[in-house]
Amino acid sequence: MSVPNEQMINGYQPGSELPERRSFGLIDALWAIAMLVGAGIGYAQYSASLDYYATGTLFGAAIGLGFLGWIWPATRWLTAVVAAVSLFTLWQYNILGADGAVGLAALEDFQESNFLFKFLLSSQAATMWMVALFFLSIPTYFISTLARSEYGLKVGSALVWSGAAMGFIGFFSRWREGYLINLDYGHIPVSNLYEVFIVFAVFTALLYLYYEKRYNNRSLGGFVMLIVGIALGFLLWYQFTRDAEAIAPLVPALNSWWMKIHVPANFIGYGTFAIAAMVGVAYLIKDKMGGDGPNDRLPSLAVMDDIQYKAIALGFAFFTIATILGAMWAAEAWGGYWSWDPKETWALIVWLNYAAWLHMRLTKGWRGPVMAWWSIAGLFITSFAFLGVNMFLSGLHSYGEL
Amino acid sequence: MTSQAQSASPRRRRSLWSRLFTWLTSMNLAIALLSILAIASVIGTVLQQNQPFNDYLIEFGPFWFEVFGTLGLFDVYSVGWFVVILLFLLASTSACLIRNTPVFLRDIRSFRLNAQEKSLQAFKHSQQFDSPLPADEIIQRSQGLFARLGYKARVKQRDGEILIAARKGGLNRIGYILTHLGMVVILVGGLIDSKMYLKTLNTLGVVEVETRDLPVSQVPEESHLPPGSLAGFRGSVNIPEGKWGDVAFIGLKDGYVVQNLPFKIEVNDFFVEFYDTGMPKSFNSNVTLTDKDTGETLTETIRVNHPLKYQGYNIFQSSFGDGGSEIEFDAWQLAGKTGTRQALEGTVNQDRTFEFAGEKHTIEFTDFSLYNVNPTEGPDGSTENTNFGPSVTFRVRDAAGQAVEYENYFQPVDFDGTRYFLSGVTRSVGGPQQFLFIPADRNNSIETFMAFYAKLNDEKAIARIAAELIGQTRASEGDQEMRSSAARSISNLVQVFVADGFSGLSETVNETLAQRGLSGEAADRAQESSFRVVQSVFMRAYMETLQEQGVEEFSQRDETFFEDALDVVTVIPDYGSPIYVAPTGFTHIQSTGLEITRSPGMFWVYLGSLMLTMGIFMLFYIHYRRLWVLIKPTGSDHDDDAAHHRLVIAGTDARKNIDFDQAFAQFSNELQRQTGSNGKKNPPSDPDNSGRPE
After folding, report:
1. Does the global pTM surpass 0.90?
2. Does residue B9 form part of some domain?
């Protein structure tokens, strides 16, 4: 029953030396300090308009980015690029809006007449870049996986990284644009279906990139980006048929600090559940085609099984937090932390589903195709909670009507 | 997590309690409960909850209404069987905790120093190799390695062998306890705040449900709950501006109970702030609370997302409506003595009965809205939001009790440069709203139209105008008899038109022509000329009206007015009300809908949530692992190598994930590198096995 040392263990190549424990080096410290200094400058500049919550969010974000840079150094590049480009965008918009809001027409004129904004920096342009880059990554990943091209797979990753960067640049651009149209309209762009689809795409892509690095395997990129691509296809349809991209003011119930954290926490959950489902698809395809072999294109079944567990565990943790935050918000806005509103109830159903999945896996040790099928079914339940409730059921959460 | 301990004892001997306990702690039950809860929850999202019972009766018919009602599907989340599922989940989770907590707490303190060689070799993660080092050196290096990896280790000397046992990540087990305890605490907190206690009081007959729509003072005592009698509740109340309330209504079954409050809430003001699109930006109520015991007062503004908290009570902005706005209006006669009006006053949410020209009329005012923002097409074709101004909604019933709902606007609304008074007509509940567009005159008033309409109804005037018209066209013929008969038939047609509209007119004309035996082209021509004559009468009547109104110059504007006015005259017969309500003034009084809650369970729900969240992260991200190193002298004195040892290492992780495969391999490789024979003396123990992983 021994495990021979030279053997590949479930896809891992064990090193002969112990991996160094992740140390907190000089660069990590400098990065964390840079984040805090950035937040400090922001605070010094705008402390007058920041309340207790907003200040907490600002420094919380700085600490979070410092931490993220430590556990996943590649995100520093993303943070730096997005910060640099967004600061430039904000600087330009601040010049435009020096005397307050300018209105939609003036904003559009500015974007039309400025080459950089027309083709890159306006939220619409940046979002379209994100859509295009994410779309391109799908065939790149699939073809490279089939052709076993390591280079092609790296190109796929680069496309996803760039797409995520453009997504964030568009996000921050849009955030500022709201205030340029009308000071009353401005809000963090996570308030309607159009905006949260962008959040979903970017979060799912980033979470995928994390697993790609963690498992040192890029061959699942096509599968995961496929679900992102489907979401973006919907986004385009929604934009072109319903003018969903228009920036509209918030309804009173949404005008709350809680929205800033409730919605993103939810989308970490939705993103990881989507990843688990798509890895489940890859698992089932490989399983049907004969399982593990010596010359695999996809990771071993055990690794794909593990990714599903890791993704669902992370998603479950954040979905729990999101639901609790939602309950706390509901207690402030509607008078009760739990009202059995359809959205709340479906969030509970999603939670119960993954709780059952995790119990089965952790306690009963279930593995294999059943769990993969269940991951996929879980995505359908999640999608209904995310979209179906808004489309088919009425309730307090009717912000994203189709 | 089925229990194994009892399996040794005879099956029959196990007590009912122990079997029940085993069943409660079984994973199968837990999964079943999670699934049943999920499925049952779906019901309440598909079937709208807590609607008036009448709506359900209409939607499902008497049979299914009865079935669904018996199953409690109209308030599924507080019905007995649903609560039983929740209680079972509570019991199951608690039972698991009771069983596992002591075991886990003991386990995370233990090092398992009694592990035997055979069992270590049987582990999924197991490895053995030889070491040339002395035992002390192996112990030291092993401990160094454990320390580096974050394990706590203990060494035990036993007959002829040494066991080093190490563990880390005991917090993972605490995570298990926290998640499950968190769920229990959340469920208990939720049950404290639920309607369960109130429903029990109702079942026991202590509290009665009131179903009638009564003023608070007339609700019988057995439907009142004194302050503090419920630990937690959620109720609501509507209070008009300038009035106060000291109760909250809690919906129960098909009625309500009244929760008395220890304070009075006086609503000073309710106001809505708007974005420039006309969308509401915030709803606000300025209220003054007066404590009934101390007389202390507190004035504050409640907004959505910003409730008022007072002595454990929370007061939320939840809705708004009309609190009895006062409406001044002119009642214009549309039938009978047209053109006369009576200035009256009414109040929203009240019926206004008045007598007008000997007839009794009742108008039920139901709503008033200050703003009516509607999307309209702007001059450049883009959609704009336009405020049509205030409107009042009321119902008028006919003799059969059938009501038609009207929504009349105070000010004329501009459409392409022409201004109209709008009157929306809704004939059936939920049916389409059709609009009457009454043109406004030069003074932005409805008077010209009403005067014109009165003129059309004035038989004498019409007969005179008709006679004048005949006189002009047939002046030469001079046949008095024929002229008066023609004039009579014209004024007759006008009356038909005014009474029955265009369809009535064409019917009458066709009848007359048929009597005369005309058909085909001749009939068409005759019909056309009749219409033209009628129109000429209208035109003259209109010109006269204008003159009476003091208008001297006839302009394009007046011509448009004439056409629009005729359109209105054609549809007035279908308007459905003998009175036209022209609202002229108002005093806006709103009411605010407040939700009043007390939730002592909230603290527990939040505490449980905190435990749950912390527990989940501990459970997923802290690995509960054990490693053992068993050092055995090989006893091979014969090759003079006294320090020759055989090492058996083994490990487990509570989660059977592949991370541990890697971690174990790294550990064992590193230990072998540090203490082993550098690959020269690879395990001779099971050479057969070396090619394949277990």
Report:
1. no
2. no
